[in-house]
Design brief:
mainly alpha
Length: 178
């Protein structure tokens, strides 16, 4: 199983840019998502604590829709927070993988050694992922590809969280009894 482990200038540049973009996204997006969840949590606490007063000002159907949107926003926020963890781990892995490319060692023995460090569900996922990756032709950018894609999903989750949070405000504003 001999592969050309050297990277072209283009591959190295692409790897570097993808790593920088992923690193920036995974630093800022979870912070924004966390602050948004905190603000929405404070608003929900206000509504629950003052539900009798609020229901006099805002129609109950709009409050129900707003709570549903709030729950969706919180779900996307939690998914964004959760997804930040594997993105950070993948980013650290990709940086180390680039450095390990220069070393020559038996890839099968390395994979077995690494798999032995994992607990059962993660070991199965790792083995399935490696089996599917080894069936395809490997490319030089594969270690950074997964964290870069996951960081894009993270951004989508945060955008959805934000849009649902704005929708909560709009629904509540439209439900004000005049």
């Amino acid at each position: 199983m001999t592969q050309d482990l050297s990277l072209t200038k283009e591959e190295t540049a692409a790897w570097r840019l993808a790593s920088l973009a992923t690193s920036a996204a995974v630093t800022e997006l979870p912070k924004f998502s966390g602050w948004l969840m905190t603000g929405l949590g404070a608003a929900l606490t206000f509504f629950v604590a003052n539900h009798t007063s609020v229901s006099l000002l805002i129609s109950i159907s709009c409050i129900r829709v707003a709570l549903f949107l709030f729950a969706g926003s919180m779900l996307f926020g939690l998914l964004a927070q959760w997804l930040a963890i594997p993105v950070r781990a993948g980013l650290a892995f990709s940086t180390e993988a680039l450095q390990l490319r220069s070393q020559e060692f038996d890839s099968t023995a390395f994979l077995q050694s690494f798999a032995s460090l994992l607990i059962l569900p993660y070991r199965c996922l790792f083995i399935c992922r490696i089996a599917s990756a080894s069936a395809k032709t490997t490319d030089a950018l594969s270690p950074i590809r997964s964290p870069a894609r996951l960081s894009q999903y993270l951004a989508i989750f945060v955008i959805l969280q934000y849009l649902l949070a704005v929708s909560v405000v709009v629904v509540l504003a439209l439900g004000v009894k005049v």
